[in-house]
Design goal:
heterodimer; A: alpha/beta; 9-stranded mixed beta sheet; 8-stranded mixed beta sheet; 15 helices; globular; B: alpha+beta
Chain lengths: 471, 113
């Protein structure tokens, strides 16, 4: 299978294209490329391919800044052959080559004839034959908006441009630049007037065009799905392999007794729910009836701009944690812990909500996931009643998954607000850091934004676009 | 850490390593490890660790040992998937795994028996 492999145009037909970079790299690029109102600049960079089910993303990994004499600055800018030779020679294995340059205007940038000659004619063939990947070109506008395109081989000595639909800068804020034709702003709709009156039309336009994946369509996930569809989000992907059971009926939105007898999947129920409740003019919900850890489940997750984690099993949560850094797809995670005595007496309930990804602490460093639990889950021991019987009371509580609908409503609400804050950059909506709600006495504890510990093994995955996350 | 990096560390610290397969599962088998502390100090045993190609590798904290070091059922021990001559010691390991740190975990498990 050659789809999305190599650089031949035929292998990328009907593929959605995107570029992702972490915010730290974006700031470094801003510092290098912004030379004032009269001078453009450029740099090369290395990137890794991230292949989803229908999206191909160039994940920018590191810059190869020009040395003195390696580019010609004359209001516009050009790279020298020596610079290109060095970039080709230093290219890490499995990495592509990107050319990034600045323009002197705001917004999504088109290309000048000189830009086309540089990327298509000077780089197209030489980069593709050296790296076996297409040339990636990016342009930065004066307002920080990125535009991007890949150059695919369509014939002998012929390379054709395909525009990326989005460029995603990922840090504490997920800043998405949208191609104005491939992904135009949404029409103004009477059904979203109240929402827009709160966070504004610009934030709404950014939010509704983001591709949001929800993993786990049980109690919390089903509510998140409904909330996002009513808020106008246009593309939702649901990933879950579970079927509805009687025990789910007291806390799964949109689920009915007949669905249990019909053995309906949770993703089918969620899709049915949002297909009838959404407020978007161009809505698409995709139901992926697979485990996240499967090849298909993982590929669909890699199609998303942001993921909402509503699975409680440690292994898929580990996979999402790794995706957040390796593939630059931030994850909004939520969890509920209800402590109940063996005689059934409720002791305490907490729930917590946090965002993980570049510039934020990972699930391990937040204490929201334990490596031993991941290993047990992978080994299948969390499904072994004999093994569970031998665990301590505290461990059994952690795996107990006790929950009621009202807890889920609260977690889902805060997850959506975190998502809006992440995409709009508005901390007045999403808050400033990880949140933990203590049902008694009834307080929301807010931590300052945190980063990973120095010895964390997840943060170093950033922008490597690893393919073997699930093992 | 990847399983390869852990194996490289084992080799660089003088340990002899083999592979074992049980169905689709692959194990790293560290041959003839010396138990340096505890009730078995000075004895030797083989140690099995479930491997994976995942990156990052989340190593299974449980340690498989051959021969049995405790009476089965004691000290969180149980039957091992590697076979009857092996014993599974259920343990936790929640620190960021590094080759050095995970080897220290194995030595600690053996030393605490």
């Amino acid at each position: 299978m050659t789809r999305m492999q190599g650089y031949q145009l035929g292998d990328f037909e009907d593929v959605d294209l995107s570029v992702a970079l972490n915010a730290e790299l974006d700031r470094a690029l801003s510092g290098h490329l912004d030379k004032g109102p009269l001078q453009e600049d450029l740099t090369f960079a290395y990137w890794k391919p991230s292949r989803g089910a229908s999206r191909y993303t160039g994940v920018l990994q590191r810059l190869v800044l020009p040395r003195d004499g390696e580019r010609i600055l004359q209001s516009n800018v050009a790279f020298t052959s020596d610079y290109l030779t060095r970039v080709l020679a230093e290219r890490p294995a499995d990495s592509g080559i990107a050319l990034l340059h600045s323009h002197l205007g705001p917004g999504w940038q088109d290309m000048s004839d000189d830009d086309v000659v540089a990327e298509r004619d000077r780089l197209g063939g030489v980069v593709a034959s050296a790296s076996a990947l297409p040339v990636l070109g990016l342009t930065r506008g004066t307002d920080g908006t990125w535009s991007a395109r890949f150059w695919f081989r369509s014939g002998r000595h012929r390379y054709e441009r395909r525009w990326a639909r989005t460029v995603r800068s990922v840090g504490r804020h997920l800043r998405i630049s949208y191609h104005p034709q491939l992904c135009p702003p949404p029409p103004s709709l009477a059904s979203q007037v109240a929402t827009i009156s709160v966070w504004g039309a610009a934030a709404q336009a950014d939010l509704v065009r983001a591709r949001v994946g929800i993993t786990g369509l049980g109690s919390v996930g089903s509510i998140v799905a409904e909330t996002l569809s009513r808020s106008g989000v246009e593309h939702l992907t649901f990933i879950d392999h579970d079927r509805l059971e009687d025990r789910n009926l007291d806390r799964t939105l949109g689920a009915y007794s007949a669905d249990v007898s019909g053995a309906l999947s949770k993703v089918t129920i969620a899709k049915r729910l949002v297909d009838s409740s959404h407020t978007s003019a161009r809505f698409c919900a995709l139901a992926v009836d697979e485990r996240l850890q499967s090849d298909t489940g993982l590929a669909h997750a890699l199609d998303c701009d942001v993921l909402v984690c509503d699975v409680d099993r440690p292994w898929p949560r580990h996979v999402l944690n790794a995706i957040a850094y390796s593939h630059l797809i931030p994850v909004i995670d939520g969890g509920i812990l209800a402590r109940v005595r063996e005689d059934g007496h409720l002791l305490h309930v907490d729930w917590r909500i946090h965002t993980v990804g570049p510039e934020q602490a990972c699930l391990y460093c937040l204490g929201a996931l334990r490596r031993s639990d991941v290993a047990l889950d992978r080994e299948g021991l969390l499904d072994d009643p004999d093994y569970l019987k031998g665990l301590s009371q505290a461990d059994r509580e952690r795996y107990g998954r006790r929950n009621v609908f009202a807890f889920s409503l609260s977690v889902a609400s805060h997850q959506v607000l975190k998502l809006v804050g992440l995409i709009s950059g508005n901390e007045r909506v999403g808050g400033i850091g990880p949140q933990t709600y203590h049902a008694y006495p009834g307080v929301m504890e807010v931590k300052s934004p945190e980063v990973c510990s120095p010895d964390c093994d997840i943060q170093p995955l950033t922008a490597f676009a690893h393919t073997n996350i699930t093992g | 850490m990847t399983a390869d990096e852990f194996q490289q560390h084992l080799a660089s610290t003088g340990h002899s390593v083999e592979s074992a397969h049980v169905g689709a599962d692959q194990y790293i088998v560290i041959k003839d490890m010396t138990i340096s502390a505890g009730s078995h100090a000075g004895k030797h045993c083989d140690v099995g660790i479930l491997s994976s190609t995942a990156n990052p590798w989340v190593p299974q904290p449980a340690v498989h040992v051959r021969p049995h070091l405790v009476e089965m059922g004691q000290a969180a021990s149980q039957a091992s998937a590697l076979g009857p001559e092996w014993q599974y010691l259920s343990r936790r390991f929640d620190r960021p795994p590094t080759p050095k740190g995970f080897l220290a975990h194995i030595l600690t498990v053996l030393g605490q028996i």
